[in-house]
Amino acid sequence: MSATNVADALLNNRVGPVMRAGDVAQAAIEAAEMDNPDKEIEVEDRVAYVRISAEDELVLTRESMEECLGRPFRMQDIEINLSSFAGQIDLNSDRARFFFEKRI
Asked: Confidence band (pLDDT; 50, 70, 90) for 1?
């Protein structure tokens, strides 16, 4: 990656989880599409991990995660599979919100 590309990458507003590959990551990909219908979701599959991102904000709900997994799911379990994330994170029992807060 050239220096220009690195500089450009730092100026983007993409946010979201970087998760270990597996069933929770696959469910998160599906849930991201369901929970953010007005967003373009980008998925980078790197075999060992998956980067899921959207511009400015990405939300994953417990309801969607449970539907995609086919079993009960505690949102705190996102953290077990989360190797990193872009942006800020707000996590509660019903949803995980990844967001970029602009400050002047």
From this structure: very low
The owner of tokens 């007005």 is: 38
> 58 to each of 32, 64, 83, how far by Cα in Å?
7, 13, 17
Q: What is the pLDDT of residues 48-103, one digit of tens each?
A: 999 999 999 999 999 999 999 999 999 999 999 999 999 999 999 999 999 998 76
Contacts of 56 (CB under 8 A, 6+ apart): 13, 15, 99, 100
Residues in the chain: 104
Identify the residue whose tokens are 């929970």. 35
C-alpha closest to that of 13 among 65, 52, 59, 57: 57
**15: nearest Cα among 103, 104, 90:** 90
Each residue's pLDDT tens digit, 2-32: 445 655 656 689 999 999 999 999 999 999 9
